[in-house]
Fold these 2 entries.
Entry 1:
Amino acid sequence: MEIKEFLNNNNKDVVVVQGLGFVGAVMSIVVSNSSKKDYAVIGVDRKESIEIIDNINNGIFPIKSSDPKIEEYYQKSIKKGNFLATYDTSAYSYASVIIVDINLDVQKNSDSKGNLNSFNVDLNPFKNAIRTIGQNCKEDVLILVETTVPPGTCMKVVKPIIEEELRKRHLSLGKIKIGHSYERVMPGPEYINSIKNFYRVYSGIDKNSAQETEKFLKTIISTDEYPLTRLVNTNATEMAKVLENSYRAMNIAFAVEWSRYAEEAGVNLYEIVNAIRMRPTHSNLMYPGIGVGGYCLTKDPLLASWAKINHFDSNDSLEQSEKGVKINDKMPHYAFDFMKKVFDLESIINKKILLLGVSYRSDVGDTRYSPVEPFYLNCVNNKAIVETHDPYVQYWEEISLKVSQDLDEKLDMSWDIIVFSAAHSEYKDSKVISKISNMSNVKILDTLGILKKKDIVKLNKNNIVKVLGRGDI
Amino acid sequence: MEIKEFLNNNNKDVVVVQGLGFVGAVMSIVVSNSSKKDYAVIGVDRKESIEIIDNINNGIFPIKSSDPKIEEYYQKSIKKGNFLATYDTSAYSYASVIIVDINLDVQKNSDSKGNLNSFNVDLNPFKNAIRTIGQNCKEDVLILVETTVPPGTCMKVVKPIIEEELRKRHLSLGKIKIGHSYERVMPGPEYINSIKNFYRVYSGIDKNSAQETEKFLKTIISTDEYPLTRLVNTNATEMAKVLENSYRAMNIAFAVEWSRYAEEAGVNLYEIVNAIRMRPTHSNLMYPGIGVGGYCLTKDPLLASWAKINHFDSNDSLEQSEKGVKINDKMPHYAFDFMKKVFDLESIINKKILLLGVSYRSDVGDTRYSPVEPFYLNCVNNKAIVETHDPYVQYWEEISLKVSQDLDEKLDMSWDIIVFSAAHSEYKDSKVISKISNMSNVKILDTLGILKKKDIVKLNKNNIVKVLGRGDI
């Protein structure tokens, strides 16, 4: 369908979403299902993403999720006929609102042990995307940046590029509105709610921009229950996003450090964390695990640190926040070394290893920057025979690998080592534990502390169980 | 009064508290006021502390506090006649329970800029104190260690010393009970509650020790509302304590790092923190400030790190937790540099500076490791004329300085710089703000973000206000 045809016969406000990934695709169907205003939504992605675009237009939503609302919202948007996907950048010219949901990546230079030697932020792809908007948009459009950007980006990058392009087209510079409101999207069972029913922070490059951003967000988000918070400028909201993710990344790194201590001192870190969490001031203490994955926590502290020097001429980077990323990056490598050490394995050549779970999060099929990836690669590079299972992942894109969906079949085979590498509910099932406990001489590694006391007793009868962060077994 | 005389005519269980400092003195009156069991409490301190001992026995409690329950509990214990203080170590021989509340210090080697170059833990004073117990106690006493110790201490230090001394006295080794349950005492308005009405974690060197510890704690703490948590061994509870304080120290250090960023980027960190705190998972994010003080957060991560290597033969220390302490130690020095920078002061020679607050915590008179100390010393060493005020501190022991209690008098004098260095409620009073706003050409530094928007507007009329962590004013 052509854009003109799609927009024909309706006077709805047009919202264009730039980027149809994990955020943009879902944002699109949330906007198209607004109960407060009727929008016509056009999702724009690059020509290379033609498969996603075609799928959306042909009834197949590109993201599989355990949240039933995803499919429900998508089907409703089809019924309404108010959601189109395209790579045609002329879409921007119809928009009252353009939401920027593209990626902004960090290039990490790490060695094979996960040591982060250096990193860089290449703003060019982001700049080009913004330029495309500037070349096409109306002079009074609201550009709402949701992408996690290095602090300073809206003022120092987005605004000048848009103004430059408007100037080239002899358009007025005074009418443009640029807002920033970062998403807190959580793939998983609360996918839609993490957009629609959650707190939002926002700002604008000027008062009018902030007001228009607020007006728009109020039509999308349940702001009565989850009131909006306006910050004074876009630097502040940009910083808020990377700060909150840095905080989380650092707190996970903290758990890592103490996890090793617990192993050395013969204690159970999970038990300690539970005891401390009774204190209201310490209720957010994290558990240890195989590592940190996903698109945000693995890079946002670095984005922030990079901008401190490059956008604000600081002499020093965010040392502690960077350290969080560095520690977390090494977690899967540590988990691999831990496996060899606790099972007293000189070598894993030809060992048959089953990895239960490849996603970076429990009960979600998201393998972006999954910590299971370096763990898997370590196994393969050390010549083990590795197979993988994940109820939510059929194909592991990052390493081009088919992943089994058939747990029964996998548990009928014989293994030297079974690794719990994601905390999917399916793996905690008593039938699964029973099946594994009936094997013998299998080494079982729980990298996430998902095994309960009674599971461990059961599994330990014919096998050996070890748990990351537990020195007591 | 002699111990024998004190104990005469009563068959109460004797509880001896070793150490009459900020924890032990208050623990003593909590035990003597148990509603569940009648105890006779003897507080033992060293002969050097004779003044404290005499005061307690003569109706003067050594700790002043904003918590009215402190005086109330103390007076009740006098009335009951069940609390004696002494330096006579024979007290231990009468005890059914001995509570260890002495200090265990870290020796820091820092330069004049607050850089922590190295540190050490000298266990000898602690060992000697434990030995005194072993030389006097009954063979079946319960020794309850509340002191924050390097993980491993109960098993590797306390138990062997006690057993060695019992052996010398030809007593049985099988009957001794050693428990560990760390306090979470918070000097201030909730002083008593922080012992009596708060969660407790505990353990013992064996099952019997843990059970007896539990039995005793149940007579002291409101365990119905604040259930106890038993951990498997003393390593675990010892680790829990230092872990929870390391967590807090690190989170404060995190705020410091971002505070500087906020100053550079022209944003208000307090506003950002408030916005992020709306997220339940981020509700404990800390504010920045002049620094971290008090007895615990400034050393506990180092205790933990030291023990990792010295008690558990680890190859690496707790790098990230140590870093927290290191960053925090430099905060007051940074605050001093910030003052010079934002007020564009080449030198502060002969500048008249008023420090409002010298305590490390708001509404508490506790100057132990107060961050105001290095700030004050920096001012004095740079030849400023510095005066101090604090409603809760008459005499600043650590630097032997009289502190003014008369705010009106201080605010009638003329100043070049006024520094809000503690967040006491008194300083937030509108009358205080008015009085300062009527001055002129005063540089006002708020190191804790206590000034409200309207205060700043008011103060800025005739003066210049700057706030740590705020780049927006």
Entry 2:
Amino acid sequence: MSDKINNSDDQRTHEFSKYLRKFEVPHVLNLERGGNLENVEIAYETYGKLNSDKSNCILICHAITGDSHVAKHNEKDLPGWWEIMVGPGKPIDTNKFFVVCSNVLGGCRGTTGPNSKNPKTNNYYGADFPVITIKDMVLLQKILIDSLDIKQLLGVVGGSLGGFQCLEWATQYPEMIKTCLPIASSPRLTTQGLAFDVVARNAIISDPNFNSGDYYDFENKPDIGLALARMLGHITYLSRESMNEKFEIDRNNPRNISTSFEKKFSVGSYLAYQGERFVERFDANSYVTLSTALDLFDLGSEKKQLKENLSKSKCKWMIISFTSDWLYPPYQSFDIVDALLSESKNVSYCNIKSNSGHDAFLLSTDIESYGEITREFFSNAFNFDNKKSKNTKVNTKVKIGLTNRIDFQYISDLIPENSTILDLGCENGELIKNLSITGFSNSLGVEINQSNVIECISSDIQVVHSDLDSILLKFYDNQFDVAVLSQTLQSIKNVEKILKQMTRVAEYSIVSFPNFAFKPMREMFFNEGKAPKIKGWYGYNWYDTPNVRFPSIDDFKEFCDDKNINIEKSLYLDTINNKKIIDDPNLNADSAIFLIS
Amino acid sequence: MSDKINNSDDQRTHEFSKYLRKFEVPHVLNLERGGNLENVEIAYETYGKLNSDKSNCILICHAITGDSHVAKHNEKDLPGWWEIMVGPGKPIDTNKFFVVCSNVLGGCRGTTGPNSKNPKTNNYYGADFPVITIKDMVLLQKILIDSLDIKQLLGVVGGSLGGFQCLEWATQYPEMIKTCLPIASSPRLTTQGLAFDVVARNAIISDPNFNSGDYYDFENKPDIGLALARMLGHITYLSRESMNEKFEIDRNNPRNISTSFEKKFSVGSYLAYQGERFVERFDANSYVTLSTALDLFDLGSEKKQLKENLSKSKCKWMIISFTSDWLYPPYQSFDIVDALLSESKNVSYCNIKSNSGHDAFLLSTDIESYGEITREFFSNAFNFDNKKSKNTKVNTKVKIGLTNRIDFQYISDLIPENSTILDLGCENGELIKNLSITGFSNSLGVEINQSNVIECISSDIQVVHSDLDSILLKFYDNQFDVAVLSQTLQSIKNVEKILKQMTRVAEYSIVSFPNFAFKPMREMFFNEGKAPKIKGWYGYNWYDTPNVRFPSIDDFKEFCDDKNINIEKSLYLDTINNKKIIDDPNLNADSAIFLIS
């Protein structure tokens, strides 16, 4: 079970990196919750080179137990906590970007924290260290970035506590960041997450060696309390699935480690080991200070408040969550996306399918997806000026599904100039690319398939990873000028609800679908008594078609009539012969496009 | 926030019930993991009256912090921990049943445990108390039941640790129990659940006042460790949803309680209060002893082993889980059901939709569903002899969906005598009731809708609450003689998979469905170019029909041909005129029944 115990986290030592730099804040640091700190030092490391116009700096924010040593500086260096993501050629490519990572305020890895000496008393801060917040942490980072004479960061990125810092950056210093990528974050902790932190801190503060936080001068430290906190944290960082995978096979065979904790079970020996290694490199007061800052972070539990806070941001957003993360559950990331969209911010979202729980962003298991997104997101932001030419490579005759998308051109023609567009079920973004060539720059795609979402992000298309039901409910009335449901109607079960929501959230809606009453289909069914099947969207067997609804043009018209939906324009196509149909379209057209309101 | 703190659990005092009885085991108790205990006392309480043939006794098994005081004995008595379930007229009706509940071995509420005196040394057991298992607990209960001269229990019921005891009863003393109702249980804890227990025990054993378990003679007890364990336990008993509901509204407003623990947040004050109240009535050694017994319980992680263990059981089973229970997740209860079905045991299952997490079985929120099931399950078992006459009240012409089920009789006619029958999508069990009148006694229903499931259980129909996909994969080849998919084909998306699995798990399958190519449908579609709609199963609008597949008789035949499915018999109906169709059924029949293999 050695592989279970020696993960990269444990390779971190209590020694500081040789490459650690320090900057001393030349003034008093006033804190959000009152009080101040003097002679504050910030420890940081940098990777890659700052370019001449200082436009390539990415700031990485670490999680609660991380530090400034995010990656190796060279082959001989000790590995960092995000080795898989940061380095030459890696998703955060240090050949291209100048990367900065600093230890947070209140930490114990070089930056001023409870284990630093208070210049006023020349004793360790201990119990005297003030309550700090994420805002204070970010203020200190801002001072560091100022000291490097960088006016704007290309990006800020981080997971967990790091994600909270990203959110704070975007709202506190909107002019200073171009892009923001919070991973596995939330507007604020769930009560459950908060409760785990409370128990962890209770374990620390009730350790007799804690002595209200003044233990630095004693031999015995509150190691037991801190180890208990770490054990508990570990459980919450993993998912039920990943714990089962790791420990079910040898549940009753603990590793033979020396520990004062229970070692009856495989997972027990793992936790004991993790707990006892942790206290060698971490400080109990720091843990209390940082987890309290986590718990106090609050962008709002209600949409109104969240919107208000996020309204200040000016950056381009990319939000990532992980399906099995139960500590920062995906719905919370989705709430951020929702609020940003309501404020008409540029935000994309991907909820990555993962078994690894909250820790997913530190593990290589799902790096192909979240690494790729990170790479493309920053790369697109950096290459922004060259970007538009890239889009012209689009193939308007590309095959999607089973037929040529000649309808794209007709759909574009229906959209008024300068419209904001919502493309429901945007697949890999072909329609939006097409629209962008035609001059529409303000489109949002919604897509359920993860690889399609990643493809959209690569193409620099704003996209939200969601089913239609969930996302439509979030939009406000007339949030968009035009909503498009292109060749998707036949595959959604709750037609009425989706159309009702579409017409609510957009002034105009465009619905295109294959006409089930197309002549050859009718004849086939009438004469043969079998489910009609023709090349194209209805080219499937009755038992395995992705279609679940089979509308005809007349059915759709009647539906609109019944539901008080206005048909503004309609257009009927024979897509095989690429021509418009005027005469009895319900019989002669294989496809229809409606503009409704 | 008083209502959040004074739940019924807290009304329990450290005093023992006035109605507590004790029985002393007249011999040495040999333990599963070695060692033995002398002069063991078991504390118990009884409710209601034992009837003359001693056939009305229900044993209730309590969870880790429970005791024998399950309910009030009269109006003036203190409330018990399952007041909502046990009493005159309640789901476990003490007017009808003789109810026994004993404190478990290793507990601290009257039965011999670590805080009892060791007769060999005349000191408290403390660290000397042996490792005990659920098997040992149940052995002691069995001795108690023997002492009451009861040969067979009508039922055993309990949640959590109580559920483990139920499972142990059914496998250790199969002759002694007629029915078994484990609630929120599992074959063994998940690694995650186990890990929480490990951290809780580590908090206790590393409390300096624990002194290896020998603390009874000292003033200071390991109260901090025990309180931490309780806080942690509490989080795992609730769901994320229920914690949010309780504490989000006033997250930053803790109750003003006096505590040595943190009270920054609303949930923090709750946990502190719960932790500190708990130590007044519970013993740390007991907690360690009982949670270790929980963790050691293991009916098998693999199906093979689980089957082997459960094969000994002879009782009728009812398994209940709760959707939001993440400590004993529903899939684990489903694993038990799966193993029991593989062993051809009589088992029903309901996964109750609940927001209350693991604690759901102690709360009144969902009592309407799980209380009803418990009442009906025991009542049916008790009235077993009078039962069959009840079934004859069935209405064979009952309306289900939109049409008369005259097909039921035809389906019955196709089934060979004494067959075991699987009814997929059994709704409220009408077909099975009908079959039971015709003499088929061995039917299992599968149903996705909770109220239908509860209705089946009330009618004493064996039913499993599941979607078809999940359950079909669990059955072994030819586990049933006949599988029935009655008027369900048109509403399932993955037709091929379901039919493949059906024909795998049953020797014969009966599939009935409405014929989409029925003449009026064809004409309507051909002439009007609109989605055909006639009275009956195809009587819906194209946009809101529950149907997602539209098979014709010829389509189905072709499908069988393609997939190497043999059509043994077929039968075509005009259900409106209640007659069989011989001539061109694909045109003239509105419904078809196929016997395939």
